Amino acid sequence: MRAVMQQPGSFMKKTAQPHKRTVPGDHRTDTPDKGGGPGFQTVTDKGGGPMLKTVPAVLLSAAGGLMILLSFPRFDQSWLAWGAAGCMMAAFRGRRFGGAFGIGMVAGFIGNMGGFYWISNLLVDFAHIPLWAAWIVTCLLVAYQGIYYALAAGLSAAVTTKFPKVPWVLAFPVSYTAFEFVFPLIFPWYAANGQQPIIHVIQIADIAGAPAISFLLMTVGTAAGEVVIQVVKKRPFPILSTAVAAVLLTSTLIYGAVRIHTVDERVAAAPKFRIGMVEPDVGIWEKEAKHPDGSPMTNRERFDLRSQNLLKLQYLSRAVELEHAPDLIVWPETSYQPNRQVLVRRRNSAPGGEATGTTGAVAIPPELQAEGFIQAWPFPTDMERAFVSRSPLPAQGSFKDPLPALKADSDTPIFDRNAAIRGFSTPVIIGASSRLPDTAPGQTPVKYNTAVMLDRDGSVIGMYRKTLLLVFGEYLPFERTFPFLRKWLPEAGRWSPGDGPRVFELGQARIGISICYEDLLAPFHWKMSELDPNVIVNITNDAWFGRTREPWLHLQLAELRSVETRMFMARATNTGVSAFVDPVGRRLAHTSMDDPEYLVADVALTREDTLYMRFGDWFAWACAAFVLAMAAACVTWRRD
Hints:
Number of strands: 18
Protein backbone atom coordinates (compact mmCIF):
# COMPACT_ATOMS: atom_id res chain seq x y z
CA MET A 1 0.00 0.00 0.00
CA ARG A 2 2.87 2.33 0.80
CA ALA A 3 4.45 1.51 -2.50
CA VAL A 4 1.21 2.27 -4.29
CA MET A 5 0.87 5.63 -2.53
CA GLN A 6 4.37 6.63 -3.68
CA GLN A 7 3.61 6.12 -7.37
CA PRO A 8 1.32 9.13 -7.81
CA GLY A 9 3.88 11.36 -6.12
CA SER A 10 6.61 10.04 -8.36
CA PHE A 11 4.41 10.56 -11.41
CA MET A 12 3.60 14.14 -10.46
CA LYS A 13 7.26 14.93 -9.98
CA LYS A 14 8.11 13.75 -13.49
CA THR A 15 5.29 15.68 -15.17
CA ALA A 16 6.50 18.91 -13.57
CA GLN A 17 9.48 18.81 -15.96
CA PRO A 18 9.13 20.09 -19.55
CA HIS A 19 7.94 17.37 -21.87
CA LYS A 20 10.22 16.75 -24.87
CA ARG A 21 8.36 15.66 -27.99
CA THR A 22 10.67 14.34 -30.66
CA VAL A 23 9.44 14.52 -34.23
CA PRO A 24 10.35 11.31 -36.07
CA GLY A 25 13.01 11.89 -38.67
CA ASP A 26 13.75 15.41 -37.39
CA HIS A 27 16.05 17.01 -34.80
CA ARG A 28 13.53 19.59 -33.67
CA THR A 29 12.12 19.60 -30.16
CA ASP A 30 9.66 21.71 -28.22
CA THR A 31 12.32 22.83 -25.75
CA PRO A 32 12.30 26.62 -25.45
CA ASP A 33 15.27 28.30 -27.11
CA LYS A 34 16.90 30.62 -24.57
CA GLY A 35 18.35 32.70 -27.36
CA GLY A 36 15.02 33.27 -29.10
CA GLY A 37 13.77 36.60 -30.28
CA PRO A 38 10.63 38.22 -31.62
CA GLY A 39 9.02 36.28 -34.43
CA PHE A 40 10.78 32.99 -33.63
CA GLN A 41 8.80 29.92 -32.67
CA THR A 42 9.81 27.97 -29.57
CA VAL A 43 10.60 25.11 -31.94
CA THR A 44 14.34 24.89 -32.63
CA ASP A 45 16.48 22.90 -34.95
CA LYS A 46 19.91 21.75 -33.79
CA GLY A 47 21.15 21.85 -37.37
CA GLY A 48 19.36 24.80 -38.92
CA GLY A 49 18.79 27.11 -35.96
CA PRO A 50 15.54 28.81 -34.93
CA MET A 51 12.51 28.58 -37.16
CA LEU A 52 10.55 31.74 -37.88
CA LYS A 53 6.81 31.82 -37.58
CA THR A 54 4.95 31.49 -40.87
CA VAL A 55 4.06 35.14 -41.52
CA PRO A 56 7.56 36.57 -40.87
CA ALA A 57 9.05 33.72 -42.90
CA VAL A 58 6.76 34.43 -45.88
CA LEU A 59 7.58 38.14 -45.69
CA LEU A 60 11.32 37.46 -45.59
CA SER A 61 11.05 35.08 -48.53
CA ALA A 62 9.11 37.71 -50.45
CA ALA A 63 11.79 40.26 -49.59
CA GLY A 64 14.46 37.93 -50.97
CA GLY A 65 12.61 37.52 -54.25
CA LEU A 66 12.05 41.28 -54.45
CA MET A 67 15.76 41.96 -53.92
CA ILE A 68 16.61 39.71 -56.88
CA LEU A 69 13.97 41.44 -58.98
CA LEU A 70 15.19 44.93 -58.12
CA SER A 71 18.71 44.08 -59.25
CA PHE A 72 17.46 43.85 -62.86
CA PRO A 73 16.45 46.53 -65.40
CA ARG A 74 14.97 49.04 -65.06
CA PHE A 75 15.37 49.15 -61.30
CA ASP A 76 19.13 48.52 -61.57
CA GLN A 77 19.76 48.11 -57.84
CA SER A 78 22.38 45.36 -58.21
CA TRP A 79 23.59 45.76 -54.62
CA LEU A 80 20.24 44.60 -53.20
CA ALA A 81 20.70 41.07 -54.55
CA TRP A 82 23.59 40.51 -52.13
CA GLY A 83 21.08 40.41 -49.26
CA ALA A 84 18.52 38.16 -50.97
CA ALA A 85 20.00 34.84 -49.90
CA GLY A 86 20.20 35.94 -46.27
CA CYS A 87 16.49 36.79 -46.20
CA MET A 88 15.54 33.52 -47.88
CA MET A 89 17.80 31.40 -45.68
CA ALA A 90 16.31 32.91 -42.53
CA ALA A 91 12.83 32.10 -43.86
CA PHE A 92 13.67 28.49 -44.75
CA ARG A 93 15.87 27.30 -41.90
CA GLY A 94 14.43 25.01 -39.27
CA ARG A 95 11.75 23.69 -41.62
CA ARG A 96 11.34 20.37 -43.30
CA PHE A 97 11.23 20.00 -47.08
CA GLY A 98 7.53 20.74 -47.59
CA GLY A 99 7.40 23.87 -45.46
CA ALA A 100 10.55 25.34 -46.98
CA PHE A 101 9.35 24.44 -50.49
CA GLY A 102 6.12 26.38 -50.03
CA ILE A 103 7.82 29.45 -48.62
CA GLY A 104 10.47 29.26 -51.34
CA MET A 105 7.72 29.47 -53.96
CA VAL A 106 6.92 32.96 -52.68
CA ALA A 107 10.42 34.20 -53.50
CA GLY A 108 10.41 32.43 -56.85
CA PHE A 109 7.02 33.83 -57.86
CA ILE A 110 7.89 37.42 -56.99
CA GLY A 111 11.34 37.28 -58.58
CA ASN A 112 9.92 35.91 -61.84
CA MET A 113 6.75 38.00 -62.00
CA GLY A 114 8.68 41.26 -62.07
CA GLY A 115 10.72 40.01 -65.00
CA PHE A 116 7.98 38.32 -67.02
CA TYR A 117 4.79 40.33 -66.45
CA TRP A 118 4.91 41.36 -70.13
CA ILE A 119 3.87 37.86 -71.20
CA SER A 120 0.27 38.85 -70.43
CA ASN A 121 0.39 41.56 -73.12
CA LEU A 122 2.05 39.17 -75.53
CA LEU A 123 -0.76 36.65 -75.11
CA VAL A 124 -3.46 39.28 -75.61
CA ASP A 125 -1.84 40.65 -78.77
CA PHE A 126 -0.75 37.43 -80.45
CA ALA A 127 -2.82 34.61 -78.94
CA HIS A 128 -5.91 36.84 -79.00
CA ILE A 129 -7.18 35.70 -75.61
CA PRO A 130 -8.93 37.90 -73.00
CA LEU A 131 -6.77 39.84 -70.57
CA TRP A 132 -8.03 37.86 -67.57
CA ALA A 133 -7.10 34.57 -69.25
CA ALA A 134 -3.72 36.00 -70.26
CA TRP A 135 -2.98 36.86 -66.64
CA ILE A 136 -3.93 33.36 -65.50
CA VAL A 137 -1.52 31.85 -68.04
CA THR A 138 1.16 34.37 -67.04
CA CYS A 139 0.79 33.54 -63.36
CA LEU A 140 0.98 29.81 -64.10
CA LEU A 141 4.16 30.30 -66.13
CA VAL A 142 5.69 32.52 -63.46
CA ALA A 143 4.79 29.98 -60.76
CA TYR A 144 6.40 27.23 -62.84
CA GLN A 145 9.58 29.26 -63.21
CA GLY A 146 9.63 29.86 -59.46
CA ILE A 147 9.82 26.14 -58.71
CA TYR A 148 13.61 26.09 -58.75
CA TYR A 149 13.65 28.55 -55.85
CA ALA A 150 11.32 26.22 -53.97
CA LEU A 151 13.43 23.15 -54.74
CA ALA A 152 16.58 24.88 -53.52
CA ALA A 153 14.78 25.96 -50.35
CA GLY A 154 13.30 22.54 -49.65
CA LEU A 155 16.48 20.57 -50.21
CA SER A 156 18.64 22.99 -48.21
CA ALA A 157 16.26 22.87 -45.28
CA ALA A 158 16.02 19.08 -45.40
CA VAL A 159 19.80 18.62 -45.57
CA THR A 160 20.66 21.03 -42.76
CA THR A 161 17.96 19.49 -40.57
CA LYS A 162 18.95 15.88 -41.09
CA PHE A 163 22.69 16.56 -41.18
CA PRO A 164 23.37 19.38 -38.67
CA LYS A 165 27.07 19.48 -39.55
CA VAL A 166 26.25 20.62 -43.12
CA PRO A 167 26.28 24.43 -42.94
CA TRP A 168 23.74 26.62 -44.69
CA VAL A 169 26.56 28.51 -46.39
CA LEU A 170 27.24 25.31 -48.33
CA ALA A 171 23.79 23.77 -48.69
CA PHE A 172 21.82 26.76 -49.99
CA PRO A 173 24.30 28.29 -52.49
CA VAL A 174 25.04 24.89 -54.03
CA SER A 175 21.35 23.95 -54.18
CA TYR A 176 20.30 27.28 -55.66
CA THR A 177 23.08 27.26 -58.27
CA ALA A 178 22.30 23.69 -59.33
CA PHE A 179 18.53 24.09 -59.61
CA GLU A 180 18.86 27.46 -61.35
CA PHE A 181 21.10 25.77 -63.91
CA VAL A 182 19.24 22.53 -64.60
CA PHE A 183 15.65 23.79 -64.41
CA PRO A 184 14.23 24.16 -67.97
CA LEU A 185 13.09 27.67 -68.87
CA ILE A 186 11.88 29.20 -72.13
CA PHE A 187 13.84 32.37 -71.35
CA PRO A 188 16.93 31.25 -69.38
CA TRP A 189 18.10 33.75 -66.78
CA TYR A 190 20.32 33.74 -63.70
CA ALA A 191 20.49 35.81 -60.54
CA ALA A 192 24.01 36.49 -61.81
CA ASN A 193 22.72 38.64 -64.67
CA GLY A 194 21.58 41.31 -62.23
CA GLN A 195 25.25 41.90 -61.37
CA GLN A 196 26.21 42.94 -64.91
CA PRO A 197 26.87 46.58 -63.88
CA ILE A 198 29.41 45.45 -61.23
CA ILE A 199 32.13 44.53 -63.70
CA HIS A 200 34.72 43.44 -61.12
CA VAL A 201 32.34 40.68 -59.99
CA ILE A 202 31.29 39.35 -63.39
CA GLN A 203 34.83 38.63 -64.65
CA ILE A 204 34.70 35.10 -63.20
CA ALA A 205 32.24 34.29 -66.00
CA ASP A 206 35.22 33.49 -68.23
CA ILE A 207 36.02 30.63 -65.82
CA ALA A 208 32.64 29.13 -65.04
CA GLY A 209 29.92 31.30 -66.58
CA ALA A 210 26.87 32.81 -64.91
CA PRO A 211 26.47 29.92 -62.38
CA ALA A 212 29.73 30.93 -60.67
CA ILE A 213 28.40 34.46 -60.12
CA SER A 214 25.09 33.16 -58.78
CA PHE A 215 26.99 30.87 -56.39
CA LEU A 216 29.07 33.80 -55.11
CA LEU A 217 25.95 35.93 -54.68
CA MET A 218 24.16 33.25 -52.67
CA THR A 219 27.23 32.40 -50.57
CA VAL A 220 27.84 35.98 -49.49
CA GLY A 221 24.14 36.55 -48.82
CA THR A 222 23.76 33.36 -46.80
CA ALA A 223 26.85 34.17 -44.70
CA ALA A 224 25.54 37.68 -44.04
CA GLY A 225 22.22 36.20 -42.96
CA GLU A 226 24.00 33.83 -40.57
CA VAL A 227 25.80 36.77 -38.97
CA VAL A 228 22.54 38.68 -38.42
CA ILE A 229 20.78 35.64 -36.95
CA GLN A 230 23.63 34.80 -34.62
CA VAL A 231 23.85 38.38 -33.37
CA VAL A 232 20.09 38.56 -32.81
CA LYS A 233 20.14 35.18 -31.05
CA LYS A 234 23.24 36.16 -29.05
CA ARG A 235 25.04 33.07 -30.24
CA PRO A 236 28.71 32.63 -31.18
CA PHE A 237 29.83 34.53 -34.28
CA PRO A 238 29.76 32.27 -37.41
CA ILE A 239 33.47 32.43 -38.12
CA LEU A 240 33.63 29.65 -40.72
CA SER A 241 30.78 30.80 -42.98
CA THR A 242 31.96 34.42 -42.76
CA ALA A 243 35.51 33.42 -43.64
CA VAL A 244 34.37 31.33 -46.62
CA ALA A 245 32.27 34.19 -48.01
CA ALA A 246 35.02 36.74 -47.40
CA VAL A 247 37.66 34.65 -49.15
CA LEU A 248 35.41 33.99 -52.18
CA LEU A 249 34.39 37.63 -52.53
CA THR A 250 37.92 38.97 -52.07
CA SER A 251 39.35 36.47 -54.55
CA THR A 252 36.66 37.38 -57.07
CA LEU A 253 37.35 41.10 -56.79
CA ILE A 254 41.12 40.62 -57.12
CA TYR A 255 40.64 38.34 -60.13
CA GLY A 256 38.25 40.88 -61.64
CA ALA A 257 40.71 43.73 -61.27
CA VAL A 258 43.54 41.70 -62.82
CA ARG A 259 41.44 40.46 -65.73
CA ILE A 260 40.00 43.89 -66.52
CA HIS A 261 43.54 45.30 -66.71
CA THR A 262 44.89 42.51 -68.94
CA VAL A 263 41.85 42.47 -71.25
CA ASP A 264 41.91 46.26 -71.62
CA GLU A 265 45.58 46.07 -72.61
CA ARG A 266 44.80 43.43 -75.23
CA VAL A 267 41.91 45.53 -76.57
CA ALA A 268 44.13 48.60 -76.87
CA ALA A 269 46.71 46.67 -78.91
CA ALA A 270 44.24 44.83 -81.19
CA PRO A 271 43.26 45.96 -84.71
CA LYS A 272 40.04 47.95 -84.88
CA PHE A 273 36.95 47.49 -87.02
CA ARG A 274 34.26 50.16 -87.30
CA ILE A 275 30.65 48.97 -87.11
CA GLY A 276 27.55 51.09 -87.65
CA MET A 277 24.20 49.73 -86.45
CA VAL A 278 20.87 51.15 -87.60
CA GLU A 279 17.65 51.00 -85.59
CA PRO A 280 14.55 52.01 -87.62
CA ASP A 281 12.13 51.92 -84.66
CA VAL A 282 9.62 49.89 -86.64
CA GLY A 283 7.03 48.31 -84.33
CA ILE A 284 5.83 44.77 -84.72
CA TRP A 285 2.58 45.66 -86.49
CA GLU A 286 4.39 48.12 -88.75
CA LYS A 287 6.92 45.46 -89.68
CA GLU A 288 4.12 43.02 -90.43
CA ALA A 289 2.33 45.75 -92.43
CA LYS A 290 -0.78 45.64 -90.27
CA HIS A 291 -2.86 48.22 -88.41
CA PRO A 292 -1.91 48.95 -84.75
CA ASP A 293 -4.67 46.60 -83.59
CA GLY A 294 -3.29 43.77 -85.74
CA SER A 295 -6.03 43.99 -88.36
CA PRO A 296 -5.03 43.64 -92.05
CA MET A 297 -4.29 46.60 -94.31
CA THR A 298 -5.27 47.09 -97.91
CA ASN A 299 -2.72 46.20 -100.59
CA ARG A 300 -1.95 49.89 -101.15
CA GLU A 301 -1.45 50.52 -97.44
CA ARG A 302 0.84 47.50 -97.10
CA PHE A 303 2.90 48.57 -100.10
CA ASP A 304 3.36 52.12 -98.80
CA LEU A 305 4.19 51.07 -95.24
CA ARG A 306 6.78 48.49 -96.31
CA SER A 307 8.33 51.07 -98.63
CA GLN A 308 8.60 53.60 -95.81
CA ASN A 309 10.17 51.03 -93.47
CA LEU A 310 12.79 50.15 -96.08
CA LEU A 311 13.50 53.82 -96.75
CA LYS A 312 14.16 54.36 -93.03
CA LEU A 313 16.84 51.65 -93.09
CA GLN A 314 18.41 53.03 -96.26
CA TYR A 315 18.47 56.63 -95.03
CA LEU A 316 19.97 55.53 -91.71
CA SER A 317 22.63 53.52 -93.56
CA ARG A 318 23.48 56.49 -95.79
CA ALA A 319 23.79 58.79 -92.76
CA VAL A 320 26.14 56.35 -91.01
CA GLU A 321 28.26 55.98 -94.16
CA LEU A 322 28.54 59.71 -94.84
CA GLU A 323 29.28 60.72 -91.25
CA HIS A 324 31.39 57.82 -89.98
CA ALA A 325 32.70 55.73 -92.92
CA PRO A 326 32.18 52.35 -91.19
CA ASP A 327 33.66 49.05 -92.33
CA LEU A 328 30.28 47.34 -91.84
CA ILE A 329 26.65 48.36 -91.38
CA VAL A 330 24.25 46.08 -89.48
CA TRP A 331 20.46 45.95 -89.82
CA PRO A 332 18.25 44.23 -87.21
CA GLU A 333 16.54 40.84 -87.34
CA THR A 334 13.97 40.40 -90.17
CA SER A 335 14.11 44.15 -90.79
CA TYR A 336 14.28 43.71 -94.57
CA GLN A 337 10.62 43.31 -95.57
CA PRO A 338 10.38 44.32 -99.24
CA ASN A 339 7.33 44.35 -101.47
CA ARG A 340 8.25 40.96 -102.94
CA GLN A 341 9.60 42.27 -106.26
CA VAL A 342 13.22 41.43 -105.38
CA LEU A 343 15.94 40.51 -107.85
CA VAL A 344 18.62 37.95 -107.00
CA ARG A 345 21.10 35.77 -108.84
CA ARG A 346 21.49 32.18 -107.77
CA ARG A 347 24.65 30.14 -107.99
CA ASN A 348 25.11 28.56 -111.42
CA SER A 349 21.99 30.34 -112.71
CA ALA A 350 21.58 30.76 -116.44
CA PRO A 351 20.50 34.06 -118.03
CA GLY A 352 16.77 34.53 -118.47
CA GLY A 353 15.65 32.55 -115.43
CA GLU A 354 12.06 32.53 -114.18
CA ALA A 355 10.66 34.16 -111.07
CA THR A 356 10.60 31.82 -108.06
CA GLY A 357 9.17 31.80 -104.57
CA THR A 358 7.14 34.96 -105.05
CA THR A 359 3.90 36.42 -106.29
CA GLY A 360 3.10 39.56 -108.22
CA ALA A 361 5.82 38.93 -110.82
CA VAL A 362 6.87 41.99 -112.83
CA ALA A 363 8.78 41.89 -116.10
CA ILE A 364 12.54 41.92 -115.49
CA PRO A 365 14.47 44.37 -117.71
CA PRO A 366 16.35 42.48 -120.47
CA GLU A 367 19.78 43.70 -119.37
CA LEU A 368 19.20 42.27 -115.87
CA GLN A 369 17.90 39.00 -117.28
CA ALA A 370 21.12 38.78 -119.27
CA GLU A 371 23.06 39.01 -115.99
CA GLY A 372 21.14 36.05 -114.60
CA PHE A 373 18.83 37.94 -112.20
CA ILE A 374 15.51 36.40 -111.33
CA GLN A 375 12.64 37.60 -109.17
CA ALA A 376 12.61 35.71 -105.87
CA TRP A 377 11.44 36.35 -102.32
CA PRO A 378 12.25 35.13 -99.69
CA PHE A 379 15.90 34.90 -100.67
CA PRO A 380 16.82 31.45 -102.03
CA THR A 381 19.42 29.79 -99.83
CA ASP A 382 21.72 29.39 -102.86
CA MET A 383 21.65 33.14 -103.61
CA GLU A 384 24.95 34.38 -105.01
CA ARG A 385 24.14 38.05 -105.41
CA ALA A 386 21.40 40.52 -104.51
CA PHE A 387 20.50 43.31 -106.89
CA VAL A 388 21.88 46.75 -105.94
CA SER A 389 19.63 49.72 -106.70
CA ARG A 390 20.66 51.98 -109.56
CA SER A 391 18.52 54.86 -108.25
CA PRO A 392 19.67 57.32 -105.57
CA LEU A 393 17.60 57.97 -102.49
CA PRO A 394 15.20 60.90 -102.95
CA ALA A 395 16.49 64.19 -101.57
CA GLN A 396 13.06 64.96 -100.11
CA GLY A 397 13.06 62.30 -97.36
CA SER A 398 15.00 61.30 -94.25
CA PHE A 399 15.03 58.45 -91.75
CA LYS A 400 12.92 60.58 -89.42
CA ASP A 401 10.31 61.31 -92.11
CA PRO A 402 10.41 59.00 -95.14
CA LEU A 403 6.92 59.94 -96.39
CA PRO A 404 8.09 62.71 -98.78
CA ALA A 405 10.53 60.20 -100.31
CA LEU A 406 7.67 57.76 -100.85
CA LYS A 407 5.88 60.33 -103.01
CA ALA A 408 9.08 61.26 -104.87
CA ASP A 409 9.71 57.57 -105.58
CA SER A 410 6.55 57.07 -107.59
CA ASP A 411 8.45 56.90 -110.89
CA THR A 412 11.39 54.82 -109.57
CA PRO A 413 11.50 51.27 -111.03
CA ILE A 414 10.10 48.75 -108.55
CA PHE A 415 13.25 46.59 -108.46
CA ASP A 416 15.37 49.63 -107.56
CA ARG A 417 12.96 50.59 -104.80
CA ASN A 418 12.96 47.09 -103.28
CA ALA A 419 16.73 46.50 -103.34
CA ALA A 420 18.31 46.38 -99.89
CA ILE A 421 21.42 48.34 -100.90
CA ARG A 422 20.35 51.78 -102.08
CA GLY A 423 22.00 55.12 -101.36
CA PHE A 424 25.05 53.58 -99.66
CA SER A 425 27.86 51.23 -100.64
CA THR A 426 29.22 49.86 -97.35
CA PRO A 427 29.04 46.07 -96.81
CA VAL A 428 25.94 45.27 -94.78
CA ILE A 429 24.44 42.48 -92.66
CA ILE A 430 20.67 42.45 -93.11
CA GLY A 431 18.06 40.52 -91.21
CA ALA A 432 15.88 38.78 -93.77
CA SER A 433 14.10 35.52 -94.54
CA SER A 434 15.26 32.75 -96.87
CA ARG A 435 13.86 29.52 -98.24
CA LEU A 436 15.00 26.34 -99.87
CA PRO A 437 14.76 26.84 -103.63
CA ASP A 438 12.82 24.73 -106.08
CA THR A 439 10.03 23.73 -103.71
CA ALA A 440 7.69 21.27 -105.43
CA PRO A 441 4.17 22.52 -106.23
CA GLY A 442 1.80 22.01 -103.30
CA GLN A 443 4.64 21.47 -100.88
CA THR A 444 5.08 23.79 -97.89
CA PRO A 445 8.22 25.88 -98.42
CA VAL A 446 11.03 25.53 -95.88
CA LYS A 447 11.72 29.04 -94.54
CA TYR A 448 14.53 30.32 -92.35
CA ASN A 449 15.10 33.37 -90.16
CA THR A 450 18.28 34.57 -91.83
CA ALA A 451 21.20 36.97 -91.55
CA VAL A 452 22.75 37.79 -94.93
CA MET A 453 26.02 39.66 -95.35
CA LEU A 454 26.27 41.54 -98.67
CA ASP A 455 29.31 43.22 -100.18
CA ARG A 456 29.01 46.65 -101.77
CA ASP A 457 28.11 45.09 -105.14
CA GLY A 458 25.46 42.82 -103.61
CA SER A 459 27.65 39.69 -103.59
CA VAL A 460 26.77 37.32 -100.76
CA ILE A 461 29.68 37.16 -98.32
CA GLY A 462 27.82 34.89 -95.93
CA MET A 463 24.38 33.57 -95.04
CA TYR A 464 23.43 32.30 -91.59
CA ARG A 465 20.11 30.58 -90.91
CA LYS A 466 18.99 30.79 -87.29
CA THR A 467 19.66 27.49 -85.54
CA LEU A 468 17.96 27.70 -82.13
CA LEU A 469 14.37 28.81 -82.54
CA LEU A 470 12.16 30.28 -79.83
CA VAL A 471 9.33 27.92 -78.95
CA PHE A 472 5.83 29.40 -79.53
CA GLY A 473 7.38 32.48 -81.12
CA GLU A 474 9.12 30.96 -84.14
CA TYR A 475 7.58 27.52 -84.20
CA LEU A 476 4.77 25.56 -82.58
CA PRO A 477 5.83 22.26 -81.01
CA PHE A 478 3.63 19.27 -81.89
CA GLU A 479 1.69 21.33 -84.45
CA ARG A 480 1.45 18.43 -86.88
CA THR A 481 0.12 16.13 -84.19
CA PHE A 482 -2.26 18.73 -82.70
CA PRO A 483 -3.31 21.12 -85.51
CA PHE A 484 -5.67 23.00 -83.18
CA LEU A 485 -2.62 24.63 -81.56
CA ARG A 486 -2.37 26.92 -84.58
CA LYS A 487 -5.86 28.26 -83.82
CA TRP A 488 -4.74 29.08 -80.28
CA LEU A 489 -1.53 30.80 -81.39
CA PRO A 490 -2.15 32.02 -84.93
CA GLU A 491 0.75 34.50 -84.85
CA ALA A 492 3.38 31.86 -84.02
CA GLY A 493 6.04 31.57 -86.70
CA ARG A 494 6.64 28.71 -89.11
CA TRP A 495 10.41 28.89 -89.30
CA SER A 496 12.72 25.91 -89.71
CA PRO A 497 16.04 25.60 -87.84
CA GLY A 498 19.33 26.15 -89.64
CA ASP A 499 22.59 24.30 -89.19
CA GLY A 500 24.80 27.00 -87.62
CA PRO A 501 26.72 28.61 -86.17
CA ARG A 502 28.51 30.55 -88.90
CA VAL A 503 31.33 33.10 -89.14
CA PHE A 504 31.39 35.87 -91.76
CA GLU A 505 34.77 37.19 -92.91
CA LEU A 506 35.38 40.81 -93.91
CA GLY A 507 38.95 42.08 -93.91
CA GLN A 508 40.52 41.15 -90.59
CA ALA A 509 37.13 40.68 -88.97
CA ARG A 510 35.78 37.19 -88.32
CA ILE A 511 32.19 37.87 -87.34
CA GLY A 512 30.35 35.34 -85.22
CA ILE A 513 26.67 35.90 -85.97
CA SER A 514 23.67 35.13 -83.77
CA ILE A 515 19.99 35.97 -84.14
CA CYS A 516 17.79 37.17 -81.27
CA TYR A 517 17.22 34.47 -78.63
CA GLU A 518 20.56 32.79 -79.42
CA ASP A 519 22.40 35.57 -77.59
CA LEU A 520 21.03 34.15 -74.31
CA LEU A 521 22.53 30.72 -74.86
CA ALA A 522 26.14 30.15 -73.79
CA PRO A 523 26.33 26.65 -75.38
CA PHE A 524 25.64 28.22 -78.79
CA HIS A 525 28.68 30.44 -78.29
CA TRP A 526 30.84 27.46 -77.28
CA LYS A 527 30.21 26.04 -80.74
CA MET A 528 30.71 29.43 -82.34
CA SER A 529 34.09 29.81 -80.61
CA GLU A 530 35.34 26.69 -82.42
CA LEU A 531 35.15 28.73 -85.66
CA ASP A 532 37.60 31.29 -84.24
CA PRO A 533 35.56 34.54 -84.46
CA ASN A 534 36.99 37.80 -83.12
CA VAL A 535 33.77 39.85 -82.80
CA ILE A 536 30.12 38.96 -82.13
CA VAL A 537 27.23 40.52 -84.04
CA ASN A 538 23.72 39.84 -82.81
CA ILE A 539 20.60 40.95 -84.67
CA THR A 540 17.39 41.05 -82.65
CA ASN A 541 13.73 42.01 -82.87
CA ASP A 542 12.24 42.83 -79.46
CA ALA A 543 9.37 44.80 -80.99
CA TRP A 544 7.07 41.92 -79.96
CA PHE A 545 7.25 43.09 -76.35
CA GLY A 546 6.34 46.76 -76.80
CA ARG A 547 7.54 49.43 -74.37
CA THR A 548 8.08 47.01 -71.50
CA ARG A 549 11.26 46.17 -69.56
CA GLU A 550 11.83 43.06 -71.68
CA PRO A 551 14.19 44.68 -74.25
CA TRP A 552 16.39 46.00 -71.42
CA LEU A 553 16.29 42.65 -69.67
CA HIS A 554 17.15 40.82 -72.90
CA LEU A 555 20.18 43.06 -73.42
CA GLN A 556 21.44 42.53 -69.88
CA LEU A 557 21.08 38.75 -70.17
CA ALA A 558 23.05 38.83 -73.42
CA GLU A 559 25.91 41.04 -72.24
CA LEU A 560 27.60 38.27 -70.28
CA ARG A 561 28.49 36.56 -73.59
CA SER A 562 31.15 39.24 -74.12
CA VAL A 563 32.84 38.35 -70.82
CA GLU A 564 32.62 34.61 -71.42
CA THR A 565 34.18 34.89 -74.90
CA ARG A 566 36.30 38.04 -74.32
CA MET A 567 34.94 39.55 -77.54
CA PHE A 568 33.15 42.75 -78.43
CA MET A 569 29.44 42.39 -79.06
CA ALA A 570 27.50 44.61 -81.46
CA ARG A 571 23.77 44.11 -80.94
CA ALA A 572 21.33 45.65 -83.45
CA THR A 573 17.59 45.73 -82.70
CA ASN A 574 14.45 46.97 -84.47
CA THR A 575 13.05 49.15 -81.70
CA GLY A 576 15.76 49.06 -79.01
CA VAL A 577 17.85 48.43 -77.13
CA SER A 578 20.83 48.30 -79.53
CA ALA A 579 24.23 48.39 -77.85
CA PHE A 580 27.98 47.86 -78.02
CA VAL A 581 29.48 45.76 -75.21
CA ASP A 582 33.22 45.39 -74.67
CA PRO A 583 35.08 42.19 -73.63
CA VAL A 584 34.88 42.97 -69.90
CA GLY A 585 31.12 43.56 -70.05
CA ARG A 586 30.96 47.35 -70.17
CA ARG A 587 28.01 48.75 -72.10
CA LEU A 588 29.85 51.34 -74.16
CA ALA A 589 26.83 52.85 -75.89
CA HIS A 590 23.16 52.07 -76.35
CA THR A 591 20.06 53.44 -78.02
CA SER A 592 16.72 54.37 -76.50
CA MET A 593 13.37 52.80 -77.32
CA ASP A 594 12.11 55.91 -79.11
CA ASP A 595 12.63 57.13 -82.68
CA PRO A 596 14.99 55.87 -85.41
CA GLU A 597 18.63 55.94 -84.32
CA TYR A 598 22.06 54.62 -85.17
CA LEU A 599 25.22 53.72 -83.24
CA VAL A 600 28.83 53.60 -84.41
CA ALA A 601 31.86 52.21 -82.59
CA ASP A 602 35.37 50.99 -83.28
CA VAL A 603 35.50 47.46 -81.90
CA ALA A 604 38.72 45.59 -81.18
CA LEU A 605 39.17 42.32 -83.04
CA THR A 606 40.24 40.15 -80.14
CA ARG A 607 39.21 36.96 -78.38
CA GLU A 608 40.51 34.42 -75.86
CA ASP A 609 40.18 30.69 -75.56
CA THR A 610 38.71 31.05 -72.08
CA LEU A 611 38.23 28.21 -69.63
CA TYR A 612 34.48 28.59 -69.96
CA MET A 613 34.60 28.30 -73.75
CA ARG A 614 36.77 25.19 -73.45
CA PHE A 615 35.07 23.34 -70.59
CA GLY A 616 31.59 24.84 -70.50
CA ASP A 617 29.41 24.56 -67.38
CA TRP A 618 31.78 22.34 -65.41
CA PHE A 619 31.11 24.25 -62.18
CA ALA A 620 27.32 24.13 -62.53
CA TRP A 621 27.43 20.38 -63.22
CA ALA A 622 29.62 19.90 -60.13
CA CYS A 623 26.97 21.70 -58.06
CA ALA A 624 24.28 19.53 -59.63
CA ALA A 625 26.22 16.37 -58.74
CA PHE A 626 26.60 17.56 -55.16
CA VAL A 627 22.88 18.31 -54.95
CA LEU A 628 22.08 14.85 -56.27
CA ALA A 629 24.27 13.35 -53.56
CA MET A 630 22.57 15.46 -50.86
CA ALA A 631 19.12 14.48 -52.10
CA ALA A 632 20.07 10.80 -52.14
CA ALA A 633 21.46 11.06 -48.62
CA CYS A 634 18.22 12.65 -47.39
CA VAL A 635 16.09 9.94 -48.98
CA THR A 636 18.18 7.04 -47.71
CA TRP A 637 19.02 8.49 -44.27
CA ARG A 638 17.48 6.76 -41.27
CA ARG A 639 17.69 7.62 -37.60
CA ASP A 640 19.33 5.08 -35.35
